[in-house]
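TICKET: design request
STATUS: open
ATTACHED STRUCTURE:
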């Protein structure tokens, strides 16, 4: 398994921050406790995120996931993508992206980001509903009421 040797090398040489090893250990324990398979394989998938994203960005996402108790590649990947889509994040975000991920809760939504939801909405026409309410009294003869007795 070629990726396992890269993982072993990165951990042995200390190229990764200490939070990575703590995350890996907790991931292995949690996956084993739930019978979800090998935590080291899952961790290798997290390492693969570093092939397409900066190490600092993946580290920040990994640390936020750990604070929130989310130990999976999906959680870390989601946080990395969320950070990339956040306003002001981008190729040159670097430390700013890491600083923006210190909270485990997502940033509030900015209504200006979603102009399609800012369109004026027409008021509902309740005339048809009111007709049903009026018709319900005259057509309910012979049907049981909620209490069980028949209406006449």
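STATUS: resolved
RESOLUTION: sequence designed for all positions
ATTACHED SEQUENCE:
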């Amino acid at each position: 398994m070629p990726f396992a040797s890269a993982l072993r090398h990165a951990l042995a040489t200390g190229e990764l921050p200490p939070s990575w090893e703590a995350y890996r250990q907790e991931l292995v324990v949690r996956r084993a406790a739930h019978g979800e398979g090998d935590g080291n394989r899952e961790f290798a998938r997290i390492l693969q995120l570093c092939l397409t994203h900066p190490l600092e960005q993946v580290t920040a996402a990994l640390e936020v996931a750990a604070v929130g108790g989310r130990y999976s590649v999906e959680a870390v990947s989601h946080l990395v993508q969320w950070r990339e889509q956040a306003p002001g994040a981008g190729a040159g975000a670097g430390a700013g992206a890491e600083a923006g991920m210190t909270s485990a809760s997502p940033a509030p939504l900015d209504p200006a980001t979603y102009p399609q939801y800012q369109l004026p909405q027409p008021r509902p026409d309740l005339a048809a509903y009111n007709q049903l309410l009026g018709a319900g009294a005259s057509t309910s003869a012979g049907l049981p009421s909620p209490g069980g007795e028949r209406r006449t």
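CLOSING REMARK: The first helix runs from residue 2 to 13. DSSP finds seven helices and no strands in the chain.
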